[in-house]
Amino acid sequence: MTSCDLSAQDVPPGSADLRAKCPPRYTLTRDEARQVDILARKAAADYPSADDPRFLADVGLIAHDLPAGLRQSVNRARLDEGTHVILIRGNPVDDAALGGTPRHWQEATGEEGRVAGMLLMIEAALLGDAIGWTTQQEGRLVTDVLPVTGMENSLVSSSSHKELTWHTEDAFSPYRADYVGLFCLRSLYHTPTTVSYADLSALPEDVVRVLMEPRFLFTPDDSHKMPDGTPDGSLVRAAVLDGPIDAPVLRIDRDFTRVMPGDDAAARALAHAVAHLDGNLYDVALATGDVAFIDNRNVVHGRRPFTPRYDGRDRWLKRVNVAVDLRRTRPGRLSADVRAIG
Ligand SMILES: O=C(O)CCC(=O)C(=O)O
Ligand SMILES: [Fe+2]
């Protein structure tokens, strides 16, 4: 047993370093993987898509049929307020049936990819309800993370040559997800996802105090296609740290967080936070069959650079945003039935 084969309950509370080295993980047995596969395929047969309102109404119940060991492990990690990432290994992936990695997320329309999306939605339902963004990948709930020609050096997840710098997912929005779920379908060279966390005991007290004040400006990242003529309408002023000092919620995007002109104390605090998060950054290399739920309140995440080949074998993840309390996101949605924010 390596030091990382710990179950969630074995991780001592408060040990951010150990959490980084040993994320709570659950490895499905072959029988359990078969059980998960059957559930996902049945859902794909019973419902037309992951966005179907009937599926969204039922998926929480479908998740009751996931293996008991998995449900117990995810539940413990959910209740641990310091969790960085929940890893579920050994999920079924039929590489041949998937076909080639699509050249663009708009082309990710294959049936086997849809089954994978259903699987991710079912496991995500152990944590909450899926939300989407009208401004992102046409408002889909299950989105695709894959390298796209021409985007190699961009600041979005379809980049490759350029490191995807760490960020709170959708930091600009009060309706952002509590978890970001990633299902790795393919990653030949194990390109790592990156994760970092704030250890407040290692930051000067005055810096922490400033980070807790609403002195920071957040703009939507480039993955959100905002309507023309909305330059500053989308600017949000908020704190980087929120909540109790022993269980802070982190909100920061290395590329899209600024301070008001002339606010030197906020600029200094932001620089401290950036250097601190840079220093705590560690790798989580997802392999085929891994599902990772990143706690978007406790950690920031990104991705190391890689060289895409555009040969149909490139890295490919399915992604979902999960809200623990769907009602919290309601002001951002048109109606109870609409899951896309915006
Ligand atoms: O590609 C990854 O590992 C992470 C990408 C990312 O930040 C995201 O999809 O939100
Ligand atoms: Fe992200």
TrEMBL record:
Binding site for Fe cation: 167, 169, 301
Keyword entries, A-Z: Iron, Metal-binding, Oxidoreductase
Residue intervals of the TauD/TfdA-like domain: 260-320
Superkingdom: Bacteria
InterPro entries reported for this sequence: Alpha-KG_dependent_hydroxylase, Clavaminate_syn-like, TauD-like_sf, TauD/TfdA-like
GO molecular function: iron ion binding; oxidoreductase activity
A family per Pfam: TauD
Binding annotation for 2-oxoglutarate: 193, 315, 319
Family according to the record: Belongs to the clavaminate synthase family.
UniProt protein name: Fe(II)/alpha-ketoglutarate-dependent arginine beta-hydroxylase
Native organism: Nonomuraea thailandensis
